[in-house]
Amino acid sequence: MDDRPRRLKDHDRVLLIRLGAVGDVLRTLPALHLIRSTYPALHVAWLVEDLSHDLLGGHPEIDEVLRFPRREMRSAAARPRHFAGLVTALARDLRRRRFSVALDFQGSFKSGLLARLSAAPRRVGFSPGHSRECSYLFTNHWVRPSGRRLNRVERNLLLAESVGARGDVIDMVLPERPEEGRAAEEMLRGLNPGGRPVVVLSPGTSRRQRRKRWPAESFGRLAALLASSPGARPLVAWGPGEQALARTVVAGSEASAVATPPISLRLLAAVLRRSALFVGADTGPMHLAWGVGCPVLALFGPTDPRLNSPLGSAHVVLRAGRATSAITPEQALEAARRILGRPVTVAAAPRLLRSALFPRAPETAR
């Protein structure tokens, strides 16, 4: 097994695989930027599922955004012949693009298999002990981080380094389209006519991550406290299937909070760029807020902040061991005041130095 760092070539056609959760996709963007900054002539395609597809559409550092047909495959799971046909069609589509390198940032059986199906001669992924479901069996170049408790942004950057990408800056590129900025400003004028500092509350999580949720009653109480002091305007952002949850938060806020209309991830990003604070658990919207430069109050329970916390001094993490619900609204208010009391700056994507954040960054390969 080859685990020596090997540089890419300018003529390489690279398939980047990071399929799933919004937060995981966002935390791969700094690695993409490192690769693209080092190798501007590469052809880069990103294979991703529907949930994050729109976030990557039109991205200036991606030549192709390829859709992984998760819904169709799930529907076909009980029909083996149809399922096999979908897999064959996907493999055929990947192979006709003649990728020379596949980068498996996900490290799961599914992502490893897709790397293998792409027929890329060089397939880079994480080594045993740093990947799941034996995904390393499908790759032929292993990245060996020296620790398992790395922040996921740094872990992804290590994989980028294993193909010769170099740089100290952590940069997440996620451009705003002009129409998104206009829509966000129009929404905020309607929801916040007084022009108060906007605090975005995000009470939802995916169904699989319900254990991360902070109680809706706590969000409602925090909204009331934020509105009275320091005089902020709490907005409750919600995603598919979360409207009832948002209504519960608003109902518990003593008429202090208002729910946003249905909002896409890209429009939420535009709203966050114009907000003073984001409050939420370890979810995709939390990573989105960090990515566009909105200060974050991150509420952690069972997940490890070392792996998943937003990077940089602009953010505050509250953790309560096994249960996020143990964090009180008063504790959250105190942390929010610390952030809101800072000088106001224009939100921008984080530009942080790895050498400062990870002074003992492990080597990518041995």
Description:
By secondary structure, this protein is of the alpha/beta class. The chain has two domains: 13-171, Glycogen Phosphorylase B (Rossmann fold, 3-Layer(aba) Sandwich); 178-348, Rossmann fold, CATH 3.40.50. It is 38% helix and 16% strand. The protein has 15 helices and 14 strands. The strands form three sheets. Strands 3-2-1-4-5-6 form a six-stranded parallel β-sheet. Helix 13 links the parallel strand 12 (296-300) and strand 13 (316-319). Helix 11 crosses helix 12. It is globular. The termini are close together.
Could you name the key traits of this structure?
6-stranded parallel beta sheet; Rossmann fold; 2 domains; alpha/beta; 15 helices
Q: What fraction of the residues are assigned to beta strands by DSSP?
A: 15-25%
Rg calculated over all Cα atoms: 21 Å
Q: List segments where confidence is low: pLDDT < 50 over at least 5 consecutive residues.
A: 361-366
> What best-fitting shape do the alpha-carbon axes yield?
globular
